[in-house]
Amino acid sequence: MAPRAVQAESSRAAQRKAVPRPAPTAAPAVNGSKKRAAPAPVEEEEEDEGLMNGDQTLEMSDDEVAEGEEEDGNEDDEDFPELDSGSSDGDDEEEDDDEEEDGSESGYNSSDIERMYEDGDEDEEEESPATTPSSSREDLTIDEKLSRMIAKNSVKPDEAIGTDGKISAAKTGKGRVVPSKYVEGSYRREYEEYEAGYGSESSTEDNPNTVGNIPMEWYDDLPHIGYDVNGRKIFRPVKGDELDKFLANVEDPSAWTSVEDKLLQKQVQLTDRELDIIRRLERAENPDKDFNPYQDTIEWFTGKGNERVMPLSAAPEPKRRFVPSKWEHKKVMKIVKAIREGRIIPNKPTAQKPAVYAIWSESDQPHQEHAMYMPAPQLPPPRTAESYNPPEEYVFTEEERKEWEEAEKEDRKTDFMPAKYDALRHVPGYRNLVQERFERCLDLYLAPRTRRVKLNIDPESLIPKLPSPRELRPFPLASVVQYRHPGSTRVRCVSVSPSGEWVASGSEDGVVRLWDLGNGREVWKWDLRGGAVQSVDWSPNAEEAVLVALVEGKVVVLSPLWLVPPAVAAATMEHTNAGFASSAATTKAGAGKEVKGVEAVKWARPGESDRERGVLVTIEVPGTPKQVAWHRKGDYFSTVAVDAANKSVLIHQLSKHATQSPFRKTPGQVQRIQFHPHKPWFFAATQRYVRLYDLAGQTLVRTLQTGARWISSMDVHPGGDNVVVGSYDKKLGWFDMDLGNKPYKTLRYHTKALRSVAFHPTLPLFASASDDGTIHIFHATVYSDLMQNPLIVPLKILRGHRVTEGLGVLEVRWHPQKPWLISSGADGEVRLWCS
Question: Domains in the chain, ordered, with CATH?
Fold first, then answer.
């Protein structure tokens, strides 16, 4: 590094040197700091003229030379001359004094002290002319250099320096004054561009910028960029142009390892540790170089003293055992579904409150729309008596006032006493205001309001549009023939022959009577001498004339052989007597299998006299059979006896004289039975349910839930897909087996228990009889289209039977071909109802 000349001004040097030396060209001053004093202006006064010692140079030791080179290397980034703002106010002079005091002791700055030492060196050099500047560094020994440095640093500064003249010209402004663009009416100073490489005096300060986290563009119009901890300005470092930056990056190998400090606006060299952290982050490694990713495994449960003795451990669960929460999944899917349906709107803008609103009321805000919302009732408007200046007739007299005060609060006509005032400003505060507001809020809270929606529906529109009964003729309308029994004994059962000529009835006197359907004449009777006749039923086979009657413990097969054609009589005798020739003439319950503890079912041939009267076969059965039902072919018939336990249901085959029990254990007490019209299915009705069995497959097909408390009667539609069930709790249930196991329609029109229901074999009619003495006739059309529901239309109510001892009509049966109905009642009559 080449030595630089020192330019100085000192009043002390002017006094000591009488003869001024020629002034050489000015050169940059060398001092310990990086500040460079600006060249002082030329003054007219003689005391301010300084001596220039440009002929001599200061020699530096090797250490000082090295320090100088380091400082020169940093001048490109930090050097900037100390400039003055050009203001001549007293505040600037005070700032100059403060900076001079901060620079050195007793008001001296470092440049003045260095000039004083340099002047002393020049004096010594003048006294010893033998030493030349060119040989001063080479001739001095190490001891001489050390002594010289000690003497240089042990000289006390002259206190007169800085008191008699201007020491430094650093604060003298050289810039151009222009209006400020930030402060209106103020001015700022613009300076000429300085060549990069000159350092700023503040660049060597260790204290950082203390302005804090503020926008640094606030200092764009100022020469400094902030203040240090002592309050001194930190001047802006000089920055070169792009060419200087490029050359610095090319020449300086460490330029790529520096970054810009925006607070100090200079380049900061990164340390090796910081560079290592950056390299590790680029390679996606741990920033800590001491981190060992391959450290030894910590033995939690192995090794000496760490053996596992319990099945449970406190070790963290591995991720392979993680099972996603199904509950959280359901919650998330529920929210997603709500978002898709629009019930939840993500990022929904919040409702903005009005800037001005009523504090105690929300009347200015629209109420949330709701179907049942009803606004609170408004208070009535004030009356004339509540005016502050009411007419005289409203003001209380003394007697009225006294009466009002003595009366109870509940008995008063008004809650206030009318008063008269000259002006509104004379009206005092209403003392019951808070109490009335409280009661008003209490009424609104304790008396919630609701809106009752009343449907304006015409009742006639609720009634289904049904066809007129006249359009659905024929159906029974009136009683035509009456079949009277002697003694008005109860007629429990009735049946019509397949040909439609004869009517058989069974009464409680134990006699089965045969009537001519047309004229109502009794043509024959059988006295069974077994108690009341429970049920009678003709065989559906029209080629035979077979009638089955039930009495206590016995089933009797009858036939009016002398009243039917000879061919029919022969076919009847052949069918009933065929079983006596076979080995199964006498069978036991269970189709020939021995069953212990069960009474045998016996088929027997009656005596000669009984056969002549038409009693063909008798069957002894356990219990008292209550109902008989024929199969459509006329060979099988079934009986049911409620008191026969597991053998209550029996199926008999007339051609073979065989009897079998289809159930090992009956599901409850069987009340009614019926064969399916087309399929090998069997209906068995208990007290509450109707079960359908497949006799061929010996399986339960379905169970119909009637909803009744006690089933009294049952019949199957000729189509086989619909069933009608009557009950003692006055209900009739229509079941469509294609729709389900519950009633399609439940009809409640009888006032007493239902006793019998029956479908017409060929016409769309069915009837129901009850203990109230009435018979209801219905039109029932069952469509072949499965998508169309059955049509049920009430047609006629037949009245004629008397109610005797709480019993009315006991059974009804339809004529096989015609729309005629035969009914039997407790009044001892059988009636024929015709159209």
Answer: 2-157 (no CATH), 204-282 (no CATH), 667-835 (2.130.10.10)
